[in-house]
């Protein structure tokens, strides 16, 4: 859908102000493309590079806003998500509108558009699978989502697959595990590892709900960004499916928290804060007490992508970023 005379593909990133969106934008800025960066909040400065960059501030739930930013796009990277956090969704009437409605309208934009078939890459979640009998999943398991957030992600993903089947778009869903890393705009990443790093920087103990038995698959944000870029390059092979991203290895939460405490201590010159067990709060859901790891082999076989940043290296980069802004004791 490039305009006449345009020689470079136009990639539109929806929801570009967050940690993942900023990392994806930085990767794409190094390519010879036209890059349209769209967010409701101001975005971090985009690194200079070969890309021709256009930045737009827009509320995508407002009438007409989507059509305006989608016009001419050859690729859409859809990162839009409800800002209130997934634990607030059960009482938030806007969650379906943002998490499903924006993608529905994005797909409807190309209904009846002859010959367009843009690439749409959607950010799903590995937690969509719900309870399974094994810790390590590979994307072939049937989905039984438990939370409203995961059910909405599943609903949006089904819309994308249907739009691919009827020839409107070439849709690719990338299901993300627990993503961590530095975020360019305060307050930054709200994920568990960044939260613990901020606590450690203020001298607070790091609290663990479920003890050392629980394991999580932690994927550094730069590896996520590279995966999205790979999905764009291999969209024809991936279209119509959902693909897991991850390291394939579950890391004990206790060990991850202890590593955070150690790195913060090294950065500040203070003893590492303790990691302590506390009773779980009332808002715990069943998935919080399950270990999880995502096997990305199917995605890797088609794209060549694999994670490159270790947990230790990623945490060092995350803590170093937070040290510049977080208060210290």
UniProtKB/TrEMBL annotation:
<dbReference type="Pfam" id="PF01370">
    <property type="entry name" value="Epimerase"/>
</dbReference>
<keyword id="KW-1133">Transmembrane helix</keyword>
<keyword id="KW-0472">Membrane</keyword>
<feature type="transmembrane region" description="Helical">
    <location>
        <begin position="6"/>
        <end position="29"/>
    </location>
</feature>
<dbReference type="InterPro" id="IPR036291">
    <property type="entry name" value="NAD(P)-bd_dom_sf"/>
</dbReference>
<keyword id="KW-0812">Transmembrane</keyword>
<dbReference type="InterPro" id="IPR050177">
    <property type="entry name" value="Lipid_A_modif_metabolic_enz"/>
</dbReference>
<protein>
    <recommendedName>
        <fullName>NAD-dependent epimerase/dehydratase domain-containing protein</fullName>
    </recommendedName>
</protein>
<dbReference type="InterPro" id="IPR001509">
    <property type="entry name" value="Epimerase_deHydtase"/>
</dbReference>
<feature type="domain" description="NAD-dependent epimerase/dehydratase">
    <location>
        <begin position="11"/>
        <end position="246"/>
    </location>
</feature>
């Amino acid at each position: 859908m490039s305009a006449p005379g345009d020689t470079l593909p136009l990639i539109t990133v929806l929801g570009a102000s967050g940690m993942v969106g900023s990392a994806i934008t930085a990767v794409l800025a190094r390519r010879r493309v036209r890059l349209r960066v769209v967010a409701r909040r101001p975005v971090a400065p985009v690194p200079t590079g070969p890309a021709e960059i256009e930045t737009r501030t827009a509320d995508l739930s407002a009438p007409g806003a989507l059509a305006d930013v989608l016009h001419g796009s050859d690729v859409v990277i859809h990162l839009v998500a409800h800002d209130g956090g997934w634990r607030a969704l059960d009482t938030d009437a806007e969650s379906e509108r943002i998490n499903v409605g924006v993608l529905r309208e994005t797909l409807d934009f190309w209904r009846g558009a002859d010959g367009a078939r843009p690439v749409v890459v959607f950010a799903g979640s590995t937690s969509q699978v719900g309870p399974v009998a094994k810790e390590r999943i590979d994307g072939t398991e049937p989905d039984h989502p438990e939370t409203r957030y995961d059910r909405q992600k599943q609903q949006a993903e089904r819309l994308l697959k249907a739009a691919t089947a009827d020839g409107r778009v070439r849709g690719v869903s990338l299901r993300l595990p627990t993503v961590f890393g530095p975020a360019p705009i305060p307050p930054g990443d709200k994920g568990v590892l960044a939260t613990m790093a901020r606590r450690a920087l203020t001298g607070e103990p790091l609290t663990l709900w479920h003890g050392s038995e629980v394991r999580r698959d932690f994927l550094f944000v730069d590896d996520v960004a590279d995966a999205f870029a790979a999905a764009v390059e291999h969209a024809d092979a991936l279209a119509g499916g959902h693909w897991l991203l991850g390291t394939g290895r579950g890391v004990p939460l206790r060990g991850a928290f202890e590593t955070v405490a150690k790195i913060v201590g090294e950065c500040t010159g203070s003893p590492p804060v303790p990691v302590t067990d506390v009773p779980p709060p009332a808002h715990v859901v069943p998935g919080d007490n399950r270990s999880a790891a995502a096997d990305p082999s199917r995605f890797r076989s088609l794209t060549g992508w694999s994670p490159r940043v270790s947990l230790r290296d990623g945490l060092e980069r995350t803590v170093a970023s937070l040290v510049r802004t977080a208060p210290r004791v």
